[in-house]
Each structure stands twice: as C-alpha cells, then as structure tokens.
Automatic annotation (TrEMBL):
Coiled-coil region: none
InterPro entries noted in UniProt: NACHT_NTPase (IPR007111), P-loop_NTPase (IPR027417)
Stretches assigned to the NACHT domain: 225-342
Protein name: NACHT domain-containing protein
Any single Pfam family the record assigns to this protein: NACHT
C-alpha cells in the first residue's frame, strides 16, 4: 500500500491506500488494479449512472490514483450536485475488504488503542466524510480520517460532559461580581522553571501560551506527565487550569483525550478513592457518564487530570490525599496530571511531579489585561488614566499591583475613582482589601473564599490586623516559619473568635497566603505580597485601639532607631485615620519630654538629646581655603559637611508631618567649638578638573576630602599608606589641613563646657527654624488634648 500523507489529503491520497500489488490484499474486494479502484469511486458517486462526458480511459483512472493527473473541476462540481451519502456508504460497505482493515487503518493514519479492534462501520462513515470533503474541496481537503474516527468512538456521554464543563469553566466572575467569558478577560501567565514571585525571565526556561501539550513536552530530556504549577495568591492558578481545560476540551474530538477539572477543596478523601471522586464529578455534570467508560479511559491513559488547589485540601486530609494520589497514579499511570498550589510544604509528600512556576505579568501582559478589561468601557480615556496612575501613583510599574493579575484587576475596575487614590494610601489599601477579601465573598463565584482559620472573613481580618499591627510596631516585615509562629502565638484577638480552636498557625498562614492573598511563601521565608497592606493594618489596629495602647506604642518608639522602619507610610496612615488620636497619644508624650516644664534653653538642648544620637559639625579654616583658591585661581570648594538626621522615630514622624526636611548640616568657622577630643576627620584638599555647563576646557576646583583624624596626626605613617602626591602642601612641603569634622554625643551638650556649641546651633538658621516649628506644633496639639477624650 502507498504511504499516508498528513494534514492535507488529495484525491490520489484517498485512493492509494486501497491498492496493493497483491490482489488478495486490495482494500476493495474484486477491484485489484489501480484503474479499477479509481473507477469504482467514480461510479458510486453517480447514483443514476455515470454521465457520458465523465467516462474516461483506464489510463486516466490510473493516473488519478498515482497522482500524475487529476479530475477537472467540473467533475467535482457535478458530483457535489448529485452526491448520495447513503448510497456511497452502502456500496463501499459491499466492497470493503475486511481482511485488510488493520492495514487500511494504518495507511490512513488512524491510531488504534492496543485493546480496541477496528470498527468497520465507523470506518465506512469516516471514509464517506473524507470523500465528501474532497468533493467539496474540488480535489483536496483537510485530512480528517483519524480525528473523525476517534470522535466517532467517543462515548456520547463524554461529549455531553465536555459541553457542560466548557460552559462552566469558560466563565469568570470578576471582583465586582460581573461575569465574562474566560477568553475575554484572561491573559495567560508565562510558566517558568525558576521559583520566586519576581524572577529574571532571561535565566529561566519559559512556556508561553501554555497548553497541556506544551507543559508535557517542554523538557527536551523527555515527556513530563505529572506537573505541579506553583504560584502566589492572585497570580491566576485557577484561571490557568481553566485555560488549560478549555484548550484541551476544544480538541477533545480530535485527540480523544478527556480533560477533567477537579476542585480539590470540595472533596473529602477520608472515604473515597480519587477515581471515585472523578467518577462522581463527571456524573454530577452529565449523569449518563458510565463509571466503566471513565475507568476505561483512565486505564488507557486517555485523560488529563487537572487538580486545582492542593494547598486548599483540609490539613487533616492531606496525607490521605497523598496516599490515594500515589495509589491512583500506580493504577492509572499513563494519564497526564497537572495540579496547582501556592508555594508551601503540602506537596512535599507528593512524589513524581515536576515543579513549574506561574510567573507574574510583565508590562506587555499587564497592558493586555487592561485592554481586555476595558473592552466594553465607553470612556476612551480609561486606559490613559490607569497607566498614568501606575506611572505617577505609589503602586509603580514594577510593583505587585501591576504584575499580579488579581490586584491589577482591582486597579482597573476602580479606574473611575483613581483620582481619589492619588496620595491617599489609606483609602487605596482599605478599598483594595475590602474589595478583594471582604466584598468578594458577596458574589457567588467559583472562587468563593473559604477560610480555614475562621468562620468568616471578618474573623480572619480581626486576627490578621493584630498580627500586622504588632509585627510592624517591632519593625518585623518578613518572617521565617519560626518567627511567624512566635508572633502568631502572642496574638490576643484569637480568644475573641467564635471558635478559637480553628485559628491554628498553619490554618492562619494558609488563609493569609492562599485565601486572602495578602502574603506569600518563598523557600523558607514568608513575605507580605505588598508592604502597604501591613502598613494599613498597623494603622487600622492602633487607630481603633484604646488610648493606653496607643500611648504604649508611642513609648516603645522613643528608643527605636529610625532605621527600624523602611518608610513612614504606616504612621501617615495612622495619622489619616485619626489625626488627634495620633497627635495626643503618640506624639504629645514625646514632645512633653522635650518642652514641658523647661526653659527655652533647656528645651532646645532637650530637643537634640531626645531626638539625635550625636551632632556632627565641620570647622573650616577659611583663611587657608581662600589662600589656596587664590593661588590656583580656582572656584569655591565642593560642598562639605555631614548631614545630621534624627535618631528618634517620633521626631522623624513629626518632621514629616510638618513637611520639614529631617536633616541639616552645620559648617562654621568658630574655633571655640574645636573640641580636640571630638575631632574625627581632618580635611585635606586637592585640585580637580570640573566640567561646568559643558564648558571646555574644564574649570579647576578645590576639592576637600576627609581622612580619619588619627591617621592624619601621625603624618609619617599617613604619607607611607596614602597616595599623598595629590594633596595640596604648603611651602615647607607639609600637607595642608583645611579644617576638621567633629562628632559629639548629644548626652554631653548640656555640659557648661560645650555651651559655645549650643550657641553655634542657635545661630544656624535652618536648625532654629526647625526647632521653633516643632515647638509651635507642641503647643498646638497641647490645646487639642483639652478638647478630646484621649486623656
């Protein structure tokens, strides 16, 4: 027999499998020559006899089969007019040689399972379909032999199941409760081999436009049948499985592979085997599905099992699930299994699975999702508003609200109100949390959030709020499992829940990561998905705490270093929640330690001793600077002097609220404050070339630089260990010292010995302006205390 050609089938390709040089092996009984086979199909095409104009010579028919010639277009048009499908099937059935069915199947590229016999009747139906397609195509058509045959074999019940399942999983409920088709609002994540919430796409293998086939064959080393797709909360794990399911279902009639979508959280594994759960699932969607047929498909490896949410299985069931999954895979080893989970330890006991990772969106994917979500929005400026907010607001291009599909969806759906969010972190994070976690449950969706640790979202929020507030207060922004459990065990709000026993650390971690999507796990560490949520709940927690607790917070901040907190947004949000409460309970006690009962001089000194660790100041030798500037005809020296920043968290907060810069520098020529015991730096000079405003040739400037005082005092050693040839020297060859920098602890400045330094500070316009502003603020909030309940 002639070989089979894939994809497209010409008329000669259809005829050739029936011919064999051995007459007994001809595909058509009694038709053994090439010409006779071609002529047979002409004759059966004309039910009432072949028109005279279409009677050809034996050689012409032979050439049709070999492909060296082909029928004219008018021939196909005539057959198309009078083709009788039933007659064609009957005549073909009379002639088909049953002894060579297997050879014909092979020649036509029809794949048979080892346990299945060729089905003669279906084969005739498919041959009729293929011939009719060639007629319509005027001599060629797509090769449908294998796909049509496989489709005919498929149980009708499975086809009904596919139709119903596609309708169910092809819909998505958005955060605002609106429904849309998956393809209308879904952008497929890239899948990578590297872990992490944010990854370098150049250093990981990437699967784009994922399909189950791509996942199975991505690794050149071999077929990958079993895969765990790992992703953080809101990244789109369930939507990815829906996408994979829909894509596979659309090709079911071609492949004969049955996709099955299983939501693991809905099943209990205490009593049923996994196969029983799968049978139950299919029969719930289509009651005519036969358990025997389902198990046969599983045995033949003709199923694709999509298991959504391994991490959502009840912890008490997880080991039972692992055991039953292993048993299922042993009994039905040839099926493809893809499951999803957040990064956690629940799948550590699941063997034989390759781990791949759903990657956050890049900018192109984010823009594509925005376009899809806005397709029915009449406001043409909507996308511009969203992009401007992303670029100019505080969520930033590379932030989680842009790269996480769920959080980006929130931003897009709120676009009419984005103007309200500019500069208002409190409103933004409050709205985001309520929309994603609290209100989202009001819609009946496939993604209804079920909390393990609490009876409802409000109970979880109560505990999560305390966890955020207490950890942020201590400057704890990320955790390992040990520290996470430590701070969880200190929470008081757990006892206020209706069922405190549910609130176990593993349940709470699961809900924080997988249910509320506020945190994620990476390796052995735990992070907030966006630090703004921890900051918001810190502010909410203390804004609603009693006066005593807020004052205790303020007291704890007195001794905390400003470097404890990476930014001040949390305190700004607390202030926005309740300005008077923050001022009177948090800031007033600190300011009273500076001003209450003190003279202005005492308060001025206390301002520094309470707010700063030390004072650094520079004394310049102006005569030396001017002399060597003049000699070299150079411009003024480069800026020198060290910035002085607060030690106190509370002073930093106050300066931020007052819109004062939280730093200043002190540079003086007053040699009265040249306290030798506090000298830290000796200032040396060199001449450098400096381009100013593109001028050429470059100008020459005097550049001052610092060297540790101790090194400079030992000049012989200093010259041996430094490249001293660049330093400016006097006529005697000595390196010039242009001044010194000093550092004095603020605990010392109240000593009468250093009163000249206090005077230097008072003469500094910037210092005195900040001090006076803070003092005025103290008296302002002192008045507020008399008119509120925060005593």
């Amino acid at each position: 027999m002639f070989g089979y050609r894939e994809q497209k089938m010409k008329y000669c390709d259809f005829l050739q499998p029936f011919y064999n040089t051995s007459p007994s092996k001809s595909g058509l009984r009694g038709e053994t020559s090439q010409a006779a086979i071609a002529k047979f199909f002409v004759e059966v095409s004309f039910a009432e006899g072949m028109p005279e104009e279409f009677i050809y010579t034996e050689d012409t028919y032979r050439k049709w089969l070999t492909g060296t010639n082909k029928p004219k277009r008018v021939y196909w048009e005539k057959i198309n007019e009078i083709f009788d499908e039933a007659l064609f099937r009957d005549k073909l059935s009379e002639k088909l040689n049953d002894n060579v069915l297997s050879e014909l199947f092979k020649a036509f590229g029809i794949q048979l399972e080892s346990e299945r016999e060729p089905d003669r009747q279906i084969f005739i139906e498919v041959l009729t379909m293929q011939f009719q397609a060639i007629v319509i195509g005027r001599g060629d058509a797509n090769d449908i032999m294998n796909s049509a045959y496989q489709s005919k074999l498929l149980p009708d019940a499975f086809k009904k199941y596919i139709g119903k399942a596609v309708r169910e999983y092809n819909r998505v409920t958005l955060l605002d409760g609106d429904e849309c088709l998956l393809e209308d609002c879904y952008v497929c994540n890239y899948i990578g081999t590297s872990s992490g919430v944010f990854v370098n796409r150049r250093s990981t293998s990437i699967i784009k436009d994922a399909t189950l086939e791509k996942i199975k064959t991505y690794d050149r080393r071999g077929i990958n049948k079993n895969t765990i797709l790992i992703g953080s909360g809101g990244i789109g794990k369930t939507l990815m499985l829906q996408h994979l399911f829909i894509e596979a279902a659309q090709h079911y009639c071609e492949t004969g592979i049955l996709p099955i979508f299983v939501e693991l959280r809905e099943f209990s594994y205490n009593h049923n085997e996994l196969v029983d759960s799968i049978v139950e699932l299919l029969q719930n969607l289509e009651e005519t599905c036969s358990a025997d047929e389902i198990k046969l498909f599983l045995k033949l490896g003709k199923c694709q099992i999509l298991l959504d949410g391994v991490d959502e299985i009840d912890p008490y069931d997880i080991k039972d699930f692992q055991r039953k999954l292993a048993s299922f895979m042993k009994k039905y080893p040839n099926n493809q299994i893809v499951m999803t989970s957040r990064a956690c330890d629940v799948f550590s006991g699941i063997k034989g699975f390759v781990r791949l990772h759903l990657l956050p969106f890049d900018e192109e994917q984010s823009m594509e999702l925005i376009d899809k979500l806005l397709v029915d929005v009449p406001d043409r400026e909507a996308k511009t508003k969203i992009v401007q907010y992303i670029e100019n607001g505080f969520i930033k291009k590379g932030g989680v609200f842009v790269s996480n599909p769920m959080l980006l969806t929130f931003v897009v759906e709120r676009y009419p109100n984005l103007d309200k969010f500019y500069g208002n972190r409190l409103l933004f994070y409050k709205t985001a949390y309520e929309e994603i976690v609290l209100r989202h449950d009001n819609y009946k969706t496939a993604y209804e959030r079920i909390f393990r640790s609490a009876n409802d979202p409000d109970e979880f929020t109560k505990v999560f709020k305390e966890f955020c507030g207490e950890t942020y207060r201590r400057g704890i922004f990320e955790f390992d499992t040990t520290t996470f459990e430590k701070y969880f065990n200190e929470l008081k709000s757990i006892d206020q829940l209706e069922n405190p026993k549910k609130m176990k650390v593993q349940n709470f971690l699961h809900d924080a990561c997988a249910t509320a999507c506020m945190m994620y796990e990476y390796d052995t560490d735990i992070f907030y998905v966006d630090p703004g949520f921890q900051e918001y709940f810190f502010a909410d927690y203390y804004a609603n705490a009693d006066t005593k607790k807020v004052k205790e917070l303020g007291k704890s901040l007195w001794t905390m270093d400003t470097n404890t907190f990476r930014r001040w947004n949390a305190f700004k949000m607390l202030y926005d929640f309740s300005a008077e409460k923050a001022e009177v309970c948090l800031l007033l006690p600190y300011l009273e330690s500076i001003f209450r009962g003190k003279t202005d001089q005492e308060a001025f000194i206390s301002f520094f001793s309470e707010g700063y660790d030390s004072l650094r100041y520079s004394i310049l030798d102006e005569d030396a600077i001017n002399e060597y500037k003049t000699k070299a005809s150079v411009l003024n020296q480069m800026n020198i002097g060290t910035l002085i920043e607060p030690r106190s968290v509370l002073l930093s907060i106050i300066l931020k609220l007052l819109k004062e810069r939280n730093f200043f520098k002190i540079v003086t020529q007053n040699t009265k404050v040249a306290y030798k015991e506090f000298a830290k730096i000796a200032l040396t000079g060199e001449y450098v070339k400096y381009h100013s405003n593109g001028q050429s040739p470059p100008e020459e400037r005097l550049l001052l630089s610092g060297n540790p005082q101790g090194e400079f005092d030992d000049m012989a050693s200093f010259e041996e260990t430094h490249a001293v040839e660049k330093y400016i020297r006097d006529d005697a060859g000595q390196i010039i010292c242009f001044g010194n920098e000093y550092e004095i602890s603020t605990n010392c400045i109240n000593n009468v010995k250093y009163q000249d330094l206090i005077q230097v500070l008072r003469e500094n316009e910037r210092v005195i302006a900040v001090y006076e502003h803070v003092k005025s603020y103290y008296f302002e909030i002192k008045k507020k205390q008399k008119s509120n309940d925060f005593q």
